[in-house]
Amino acid sequence: MKPDLIEILKVILLGIIEGITEWLPISSTGHMLLADELVVLNQSAAFKEMFFIVIQLGAILAVVVLFWNKILPFQFRDKSKPVFKKDTISLWLKVAAACIPGAIATLLFDDFIEENFHTPMVIAAALIVYGIAFILTERWNEDSAPKILSLYDITYKTAIAIGLFQVLSIVPGTSRSGATILGALIIGVSRVAAAEFTFFLAIPVMFGLSAVKILKFGFSFTGTELLVLVLGMAVAFIVSMLVIKFLMSYIRKHDFKVFGWYRIVLGIIVILYFTVF
Predict the structure, then answer these.
(1) Predicted TM-score of the model (pTM)
(2) Where are the chain's structural domains?
(3) 27: exposed, middle or buried (C-beta count within 10 Å: 0-12, 13-18, 19+)?
(4) DSSP state, 153?
(5) pLDDT in tens, 217-273
(6) Residue 220 in 3-state DSSP?
(7) Residue 10: how many CB atoms within 10 A of its CB?
């Protein structure tokens, strides 16, 4: 059975939400879980659990496209001889080191978190707490210059510290990008370098999570499920291209406080909505 127009519009809306919220530090998972309360896909619970993770591959592909020259660890100076870029290889090794804490936490606690923390009140609390943290961190940094200005100046020690902050994002509403950017700002990384490192870090993390979810769900997709998944990823990819360009331009002149205030307001709205209704 093919999805009707309403279902297609729901998938497009969810793809737009994913594309916007994956890279802004406002929690894509939190927004997607909240959206599911209001815009319910006519799919099985197992498929939706997988969909909300795998749709992020579309957003990740946008990073690969936009940062291809920085991501690729080699370049061709002529048609036959690739030249390996030491700085890029070193960066990927640091990204790999930063992934370790999150990978361990996910393997140990993912099922427990899904069963006990995927609730509107937990999401609201995380939105508010980390919103306040962003505002306080940016105010604290107003009178001090960042110690690490460039993506390639990030050390293994700094990368692992950022990876430890990423562990916080297993709680829905925290935001993976929000946790890593906040952690980077606290330890003295510039906004631009923090955002770029977050983009790089998302590539192996989201590919890994997506692989786990697909293996858990199985590869027996119906035609409708495959269409829903591909459409959601395509929309997330297109929107992410625009959002990443916006964010990189925005943070060159502005700080992250506006996202902190947004998180607080949204968290309060969520509490009021689910308390009243």
Answers:
(1) 0.88
(2) 5-71+83-276
(3) buried
(4) G
(5) 777 788 888 899 999 999 999 999 999 999 999 999 999 999 999 999 999 999 998
(6) coil
(7) 21
